[in-house]
Amino acid sequence: MTDTPTSYQRINADMIQNFKGQYVTLVGKLLQSKGDYVEFSVDGTIVKVTEIEEVPESNEDILLEIRGKLNEDGFFEAKEFTELDQTFDFQLYKKVITMVQGQFRDLFYD
């Protein structure tokens, strides 16, 4: 049996410290490759992402939804990612995450 969940909680940068060691979904902008990892901006916070394969290349911002595990050492171990459209509304997403992790948490997570 694997410890990989069927559901990854959606969090924003303010919640990262509370979810170390857990599987989560982060949305943000891909910044640059640093060899063994890539820098990913989540609400202005830099997250170091490992295990990400075939990083997309573009002249525009690369917006991604990444699912993976926030390791205790501060790295985010990617399991999979989806490229998002340039029209993605980060402000609306942040409001939704606040509601999902707040008063409506029981509707989304066990």
UniProtKB/TrEMBL annotation:
Q: Which family does it belong to?
A: Belongs to the replication factor A protein 3 family.
What GO MF annotations does this protein's record show? DNA binding
Q: What is this protein called?
A: Replication factor A protein 3
Q: Which UniProt keywords apply?
A: Nucleus
Sorted alphabetically, the Gene Ontology BP terms of this entry are: DNA recombination; DNA repair; DNA replication
Task: Output the InterPro entries linked to this UniProt entry.
Answer: Rfa2
Output the superkingdom of the source species.
Eukaryota
What subcellular locations does the record give?
Nucleus
Family annotation (Pfam families): Rep_fac-A_3
Could you name the Gene Ontology cellular component terms for this entry? nuclear lumen
